[in-house]
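Researcher: Good morning. I'm working through a list of sequences from a screen, and I'd like to move beyond sequence-only analysis. For each chain I'm collecting a predicted structure so we can compare shapes side by side. This is the next one on the list. No need for commentary yet; just the structure.
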Amino acid sequence: MNKQLADLICDYQAKVREALLLMQRSGIRMPSSNWRWIEADIPQKGLLDGNIAYMKHGIGCTVYLPDGEVDFDFGKRGEIDGFDAWRLSLFASEKLPTYGFENQDTLEKCFETAVAEGYLVRSDDSLFYVANLTRALAVDIDCRLPGDNLPARNLDIVLVLHCHYFQAAELMLENYDNLHRQWKKNNSLSHRKVVDLQIYMSSWLGFLAVTCEGFEGLGMHRLLRDSRPAAFEKLIQKSNAVGKLIKRHRNPLREFRNKTFHLRKDPEAIRSFFAPDANRIPWARELHDAFTEFFSAYRFQCEVHYSLNGRWGEVRVTRESPQRYTRW
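Model: Good morning. Structure tokens for this chain:
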């Protein structure tokens, strides 16, 4: 690709990221898709930190930075590195000659050549992207200041463990308990619901096992001590309590998980887990409750840290707005 065009694209993308960092620190949540941006409940016009103006429009935004405005659209899945010839021209403005382009027409011709040669590709969101590069997402924006060692919300591995694995365990246990209460109340349950009950039980224990493996794999005690702000050390006691509980029946639970999430030829691991004298279901509930307490405390500490460090776009003290269905 033409070097002057590559430089212009690189500078434009850097300025978009600068604008997004400012937006997030000013309290604007980063969207997971361009549709979520459309639905975002924020004023169409306003001021960001430092009295910097912005204007929300369609699937994008214009931010009037001190050294010039930058206009951008979010991609279909919240990509932030899309562009087109018009936006590049608007960004460069009177500086076009410094990038080696006499005027907008010469830029557009160079742009068209890059597309024809495959250096730039057009997506179904009508934006162009540099070919063969991983696309950056708005939800991965990291607005931390130097010295802040709490990872960005979307990149915090502890929150990932909670969101993608423990919450699955919570949902399965909730479904199991609802059906089990119905069974006790009516003294009967249809065959289909009995099957569902068994599926919920197995899925709960399976996701609980995955949560245990992730928790131990992270070395939670060491992570809280060495890789999080000092205030997180108060969670070490809860972390140690979870760790002690895991050790009681770690291996049987892991075997149960393997036989649940992989095709099994021998049901013995399943049967032995439920052996009456093993008393593992009360243990699993106790472990589940301990995880609930730990993750709740961790998330609360995150919210406090986001607020104290001006990371307002990551704060989630209010209920998330409903999401409309969109086809992937």
